[in-house]
């Protein structure tokens, strides 16, 4: 019996492409949905931003996929919402990415959307009172905020999945069953619909 970390250790890092997420969703949904329902949850290639070819830092990747960021940031005035959502597998990884966004942040306000040491009520209060441009968090907490009407996704234009990064056990976010399930639930809840309508684009970093 090979452990997943043994297999991963031997596999060369390969950048995530839209087909990876498309296949994952198809497998997940076709287990217990009708053909018509699965069709409704399909993401076409046009829903995706260019994927990270593994040469990018997080800052340079964001600059590439969102060259008009300054304009978007200035226009965004809605509370309870963010222009960009970044989904990571852990609170520590969220903090790492927030630190590495230096060149991109400028005057933008970033909100931590994970559960570690932060109560959901605090996040809801902050979202209600202020204008934030980027939310960086874990899928479970983001899903809970959307469900409790603390976070509205209608102004969200970009959703970035921290797809290629590996933790100490060499697992990517979609190799961790709980994170995978919460990410798919979040996508199904509203993101897939917004992507299909063309208002949200997905990026695999």
UniProtKB/TrEMBL annotation:
Pfam families in the cross-refs: CMS1
Gene3D superfamilies: P-loop containing nucleotide triphosphate hydrolases (3.40.50.300)
Domain of life (superkingdom): Eukaryota
InterPro entries: Cms1, P-loop_NTPase
Entries under SUPFAM superfamilies matching the protein: P-loop containing nucleoside triphosphate hydrolases
Gene Ontology cellular-component terms listed: 90S preribosome; nucleus
Matches recorded under PANTHER family: PROTEIN CMSS1 (PTHR24030:SF0)
Official protein name in the record: CMS1 protein
Species annotation: Halcyon senegalensis
Gene: Cmss1
